[in-house]
């Protein structure tokens, strides 16, 4: 391990240069930009690292990159990552060109460096470093790199189910993680689920002069009333049955939560806010953020929203909602409950449409794989690894629910990474630690129990 | 009168041609388009009709056109109109070019023909017809034609107060009216008042990934909650003191309301709606439309409203509201009550800004001037004149409250005029009747009591 760590230290500049080149290649799935080119570049980078990589036919969507390396022990770790990135817009808010891959003050600025190209290459380069320092890989590794994560992984489930044999593994290293507000490294053991849907209100054929407001139904008011019926002021969702399937947090998980530092101070400062919902402080911030489902308005609009005065009673109004769900809420069941709720409250005419649905999923904090990741972290990091029983965000972990394997996410980010936002960046020192963490994990996985 | 009516019948084609030319000249106050040119064109048209017309200096805004003709009797009727028009957008929804002035199936299609250039020229051409058929004008007439009605008449009050002597009159013919859904001609004796304002919610410095929704305050939810607090499902406004200054409808006005046909059927058909607010039918439609104040959402927006899925918790949200007010509600008092309401309900941080304010005003149904207008209508129309104690819309009638003179609106529109909307149009037959109605009124005003 020491030899490999030294190799990483000595060759870090060229590893960063390779990451910069990879990130320069735009791969915006939402805009169908540079997808094939980036997938091919990735295959070459993986091959150079000693990984047997190839593009696997995926007739339903963007190319999937698969790779494998045989190891000494008869154990297999599957690496799940994605090479697609979020759109760079709004471009005018970037300090440096979004695909410029510029380094300033030890930070690399480029769309996708944090989510997820950095974490992806940290794994590829960790394997390269092990192989180049005269070792055989300690365990078998498989790579599954999709190109549709940022658009909701529409063809992923079908792909995985079609290639169950190819993807068979004992444990899975999930795509990403980031240090917390106190710079502790973090492993994430789950994702919330999500139901994303839209409400469309139509009360007539045409917007009318607002002098008619006393008698003509208003789509704007109907939307306000429908939205208000969904949630009380504390954020509690008022849909009948919404919480029925929420599983209580078990004792071990409760213990784990107690060890997770509250993001309160750092998050408030970054967002410019004085207080959280329901004045949550300390532990309660984590409990709310990670264990409670939520109903969020991503956007809403109705009528005239330009400059100045226009007197109109709008005949259409719409809202985009996301419900974040926890184990074992079922997004499609929630979708049905929402429809029933609207009907019951007199909003039968509101059209409800489904945008995407993902089930929540989590791995137990007691899994042996998690312990190995923890011990490997101690080989690299000065600060202890924080075990986050679930992430606040959503991802397609539930697709692997059939396999029963433990799934844990580690990565190269930090609290200021600006994922999905302008000025996405990583710190190069974090990146180096992430490469070493993967290497340490692979070394340990040979002799320690991962399941 | 007969000679003048014959003249109108015989010269109607050239009168329509003049109206077409006048309407072709765009005069969009909101876009500062063609204002001076149109004012000058109007002065020429008025002069050709025999009216002593000129542009009066209005340093605070768009040119005001003033005109006068001395009459036989020592009585003066002031004509209030405006030459500015609404913006033509959305242009793609017009069947014919918005400033093309095309005639199809007896309808003239052009922005401003109904509101208010048609009514304005019907008055100018009525005077022209009387003078050209060898008469002296029966009474004195003054014209006050502003260019800012469609942007809320910002400099009108100051202008009127500055020129009180010039504008002195016994009665005022207000800018506009339109036949009702049953094609009865209508005289409008009042305007509702209006408070137009905006709510701006800001909960932080930046929109955040919606995985943070359980703890990060949402501007969208705060706006929904604030809006919902303003109004119940029946449309009743929940602001303390909102209804305190509403004067009850007097017995004579109640009688008048009973004679006003309900717009129910026609309005529902045109708007493509099945039912009105609170299932109002028959008389209740008029009572709601004309005698009740209202709170309307003209527009609202927050967060992501583009295509597809974006998972964001918005830090800003805003809404444009108009409150239609009835006698004797005071818009600035309502504005203060609204601020108090927001503060009382925990929305101290919501910024409230005033866009415009206009007081309600109405003339009694018992005024002699109204009776003369009714008798003049009987000279022209087959159907009886409907006396509408107030219009549902807003206008600067209250600016003349100081004068105490009766103010009544008649015009050339019909129920399908699409005022403020694409495909604004008038029917040429209605226009001819409107010209004759003005002529008849002027003849009758000489010998009949107008006050």
Notes on the protein architecture:
The structure is a homodimer of 451-residue chains. In chain A, helix 2 crosses helix 4 (113-132) and helix 4 packs across helix 12. The mean pLDDT of chain A is 95. The first copy, chain A, is built from 12 helices and 19 strands. The first copy, chain A, is globular, with a radius of gyration of 23 Å. With 451 residues, chain A is an alpha+beta fold. Chain A has 2 domains: 2-189 and 363-447, Aminopeptidase; 194-357, Alpha-Beta Plaits, CATH 3.30.70.360. At the A-B interface, strand 11, helix 6, helix 9, strand 12 and strand 13 of A face strand 11, helix 6, helix 8, helix 9 and strand 12 of B.
- Work out the strand percent of chain A: 15-25%
CATH architecture of the largest domain in chain A: 3-Layer(aba) Sandwich
Structural class of chain A: alpha+beta
Oligomer state of the chains in this structure: homodimer
What would a concise description of this structure say?
The structure is a homodimer of 451-residue chains. By secondary structure, chain A is an alpha+beta fold.
Topology:
2 copies of one chain form a homodimer.
Chain A: H1 2-10, H2 12-24, H3 35-49, E1 52-56, E2 64-69, E3 73-82, E4 102-104, E5 107-109, H4 113-132, E6 139-146, H5 156-162, E7 171-174, E8 186-188, E9 190-191, E10 193-202, E11 208-209, H6 219-230, H7 251-259, H8 264-271, H9 283-291, E12 294-303, E13 312-313, E14 316-325, H10 331-344, E15 351-358, E16 361-362, H11 368-380, E17 386-388, E18 407-409, E19 425-427, H12 428-447
Parallel strand pairs in A: 3-6, 3-7, 7-18, 8-17
Antiparallel strand pairs in A: 1-2, 2-6, 4-5, 5-19, 9-16, 10-14, 10-15, 11-13, 12-14
């Amino acid at each position: 391990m020491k030899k490999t760590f030294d190799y990483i230290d000595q060759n870090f500049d060229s590893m960063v240069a390779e990451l910069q080149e990879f990130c320069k290649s735009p791969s915006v799935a939402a805009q169908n930009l540079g997808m094939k080119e980036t997938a091919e570049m990735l295959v070459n980078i993986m091959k150079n690292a000693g990984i047997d990589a190839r593009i696997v036919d995926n007739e339903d969507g963007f190319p999937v990159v698969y790779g494998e390396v045989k190891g000494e022990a008869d154990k297999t770790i599957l690496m799940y990552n994605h090479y697609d990135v979020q759109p760079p817009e709004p471009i005018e808010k970037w300090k440096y060109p979004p695909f410029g891959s510029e380094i300033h003050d030890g930070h690399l600025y480029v769309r996708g460096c944090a989510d997820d190209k950095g974490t992806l290459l940290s794994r590829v380069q960790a394997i390269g470093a092990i192989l180049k320092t005269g070792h055989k890989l300690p365990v078998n590794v498989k790579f599954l790199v999709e190109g549709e994560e940022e658009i909701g992984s529409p063809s992923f489930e079908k792909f995985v189910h079609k290639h169950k044999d190819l993807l068979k593994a004992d444990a899975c290293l999930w795509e990403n993680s980031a240090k917390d507000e106190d710079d502790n490294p973090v492993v994430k053991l789950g994702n919330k689920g999500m139901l994303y849907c839209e409400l469309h209100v139509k009360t007539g054929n045409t917007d009318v002069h607002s002098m008619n407001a006393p008698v003509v139904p208003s789509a704007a008011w109907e939307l306000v009333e429908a939205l208000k019926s969904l949630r009380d002021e504390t954020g509690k969702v008022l849909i009948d049955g919404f919480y029925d399937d929420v599983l209580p947090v078990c004792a071990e998980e409760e213990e784990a939560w107690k060890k997770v530092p509250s993001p309160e101070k750092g998050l408030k400062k970054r967002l410019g806010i004085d207080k959280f919902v329901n004045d949550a402080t300390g532990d309660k911030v984590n409990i709310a953020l990670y264990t409670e489902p939520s109903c969020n308005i991503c956007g809403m609009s109705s009528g005239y929203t330009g400059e100045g005065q226009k007197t109109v009673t709008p005949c259409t109004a719409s809202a985009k909602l996301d419900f974040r769900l926890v184990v074992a809420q079922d997004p499609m069941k929630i979708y049905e409950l929402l429809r029933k709720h609207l009907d019951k409250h007199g909003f039968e005419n509101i059209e409800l449409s489904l945008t995407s649905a993902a089930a929540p999923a989590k791995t137990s904090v007691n899994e042996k794989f998690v312990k190995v990741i923890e011990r490997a972290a101690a080989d690299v990091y000065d600060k202890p690894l924080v075990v986050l029983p679930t992430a606040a965000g959503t991802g397609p972990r539930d697709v692997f629910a059939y396999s029963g394997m433990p799934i844990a996410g580690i990565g190269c980010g930090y609290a200021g990474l600006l994922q999905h936002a302008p000025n996405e960046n990583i710190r190069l020192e974090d990146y180096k630690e992430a490469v070493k963490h993967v290497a340490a994990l692979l070394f340990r996985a040979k002799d320690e129990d991962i399941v």
